[in-house]
Amino acid sequence: MLNRSLARKANLVNAMQIASQRGWNIAERHETRSGYSDSIRLELETDSGITSVEGAVLLDKPRLMRVDEIYCETPLAGHLIYMKNQDVPGVIGHVGGVLGRNQINIANFSLGRGEAPIRPGEPLEAVAVVSTDDPVPEDVLAQLRQNPAVKLARSVEFL
């Protein structure tokens, strides 16, 4: 994770020292709360809250399994769009329409939703990870965010 933002390379020997120099608090725990025999869970705490992700290696390929306690299994490879949205009708159609109009092919579409609303009376929160054949430019992400139910749409690439 450090190597994406550093000029020098982090490794198993220096990663904790580099993280400490940046003011990051790292805590390593071993627990069996997941349904997977070997998974890793990362929690990132910022001023805007805590985000957690869990992943595992299945059939020799890394996969995302959960985001913020929402199950959403998808391969961690290639070009992805990560979205948070309200679980309301029309969002999937909106995503397909925007990508289709922009000639971006969907390779995989993985969805998940929370079990309870964040606030009573509100729609459930949902997560979508869309794998695409090509990178998704910022102007297309902006079109996705035009739907009021879409709260976040970001492009992620795994090389």
Commentary on this structure:
This protein is α+β, with helices and mostly antiparallel strands and 159 residues long. 16% of the residues lie in helices and 41% in strands. The chain has helices at 15-21, 91-101, 138-145, and strands at 39-46, 49-58, 61-67, 70-75, 78-86, 106-113, 125-132, 150-158. The strands form two sheets. A four-stranded antiparallel β-sheet has the order 1-2-3-4, with no helix packed on it. A hairpin with a 2-residue loop joins strand 1 (39-46) and strand 2 (49-58). It is globular, with a radius of gyration of 17 Å. The model has no long low-confidence stretch (mean pLDDT 87).
Q: Let me know the number of strands.
A: 8
Q: Which percent bin holds the helix content?
A: 10-25%
Query: What's the helix count?
Result: 3
Radius of gyration: 17 Å
Distance between the termini: 14 Å
Report the order of strands and helices: HEEEEEHEEHE
Low-confidence stretches: none
How large is the share of residues in beta strands?
Answer: 35-45%
Biggest pleated-sheet summary: 4 strands, antiparallel
The overall pLDDT, averaged over residues, is: 87
**Structural class category:** alpha+beta
> Which descriptor suits the 3D outline?
globular
